[in-house]
Amino acid sequence: PLAAGDGEKDVQPHCNLQVYTYTCDVGKRENVYSTAERVRKEVGEVSVLVNNAGVVSGHHLLECPDELIERTMMVNCHAHFWTTKAFLPKMLEMNHGHIVTVASSLGLFSTAGVEDYCASKFGAVGFHESLSHELKAAEKDGIKTTLVCPYLVDTGMFRGCRIRKEIEPFLPPLKPEYCVKQAMRAILTDQPMICTPRLMYMVTFMKSILPFEAVVCMYRFLGADKCMYPFIAQRKQATNNNEAKNGI
């Protein structure tokens, strides 16, 4: 949820690029609005907004502290409202801009054990789609939107997550660089939505047309029904170890 740096400027002499970075807790709307004002004053108007911050609690629902549930919703979902409200007005005025929502495949279909994360990503997807329709209704065709829904990305965020071992070779965690390339291609070509890998389109389609019990059978076949359980157990063990080290 935090962006690195604090108004620092990095000059690249070979390509004459200037990169500005700011620290901002996107889960707090006042922080977002004040940082957006700094950006406008020090850099200028933002024409490309990428909502990418994400957190996960790593607890079963009844074992998850309320504060962590609220944090997941604020960072993964509510922040999209604040950043969009901060930068969309100028985009509307100029009829120019691009809003990118980095959601997740778990914003299109769900799994057990990560209720807060799924709810937040479903919320982000719903927000993005509604906003896209609003821009179309307002005939602001100069403002593009792209929804990015990747499968499990190998960043360590969901370390331990496992599907059925026979399926894993065909559906391994995605490399971050690959996801970035796919997302950038979609953005540069004004693609409204990108699911990575393409198999996610099929899973989403099947989930939409099949009865719930058939979806359960499909999940069990893929090992997706309890794929998060090893991840949650690993997080719980790590938490217990830290508590033991700290004498709590």
Quick structural overview:
The protein is α/β, with parallel strands linked by helices. Helix content is 48%, strand content 13%. The strands form 2 sheets. The protein has a 4-stranded parallel β-sheet. The protein has a two-stranded antiparallel ribbon with strand order 1-2.
List keywords for this structure.
248 residues; alpha/beta; Rossmann fold; four-stranded parallel β-sheet; 7 helices; 48% helix; disordered N terminus; NADP; NADP-retinol dehydrogenase; NAD(P)-bd_dom_sf; oxidoreductase
Structure commentary:
48% of the residues lie in helices and 13% in strands. The chain has 248 residues and is an alpha/beta fold. It has a domain of 157 residues: Rossmann fold. The chain has a four-stranded parallel β-sheet. Strands 1-2 form a two-stranded antiparallel sheet. Helix 3 links the parallel strand 4 and strand 5. Helix 1 runs parallel beside helix 2 and helix 2 packs parallel to helix 3. The longest helix has 29 residues. The N terminus is likely disordered. Keywords: Endoplasmic reticulum, Membrane, Microsome, NADP, Oxidoreductase, Signal-anchor, Transmembrane, Transmembrane helix. It is found in: Endoplasmic reticulum membrane; Microsome membrane.
